[in-house]
Write a structure and sequence with these properties.
mainly alpha; globular
Length: 161
Amino acid sequence: MPVMTTLGWFHTVMGIIALLSGAYTLYQYKEIVFENRSGLIYLATTFITAATALAIYQHGGFGPGHALAIFTLGALAVGTLAGSTDLSGSWGRYLRALSYTATLLFHSIPAVTDGLLRLPVGNPVLTSIQDPVMRTTYLILLVLFVVGVTLQLRWIHKQRN
C-alpha cells in the first residue's frame, strides 16, 4: 500500500469521526437529522470525507472509492432535499432516512477495505482486494444495511401513527 499523504490522513480522520458519529446517531435517535448535534457532525464529516476522497489518487486514477464518494455526495443531496422540501411529500422522511443511512454503507466499504488491507501495519489481515473474505465482508455490510434500514423505516412509520 502507498504511504498516506496529509490529505489521506485528514480524510481518514474525518471518515472515522463520520462512522462513529453516524453509528451513535442511529443508536441514540434512530435516524440521522441535522437537528441533533451528532447528526450534524455526521453529515458534515461525511461531506468532507466524500469530497476529499475525490482528490485522492494513490492507486493511479478513478476507482471504486471515487465512485462511492460520488454516490455519497448524491445521497447527501437527495436526503437533504427530501428532508428540507415538500418535493417528496409524505415520503420525504423515509427518503431522507434511506439516503443518509446509505451513506453509512458507502463509508463502510472503503473503511473495511483499507482496514483489512493496511492493518496491522506490516502484516495486514488481507493482501489482496480479490480475497474471498473481502466479498463476504461486503455481503455482511449489505445485510446489516438492509436490516438496519428496514428497522429504521419501521420505526419512522410507527412515529407517524
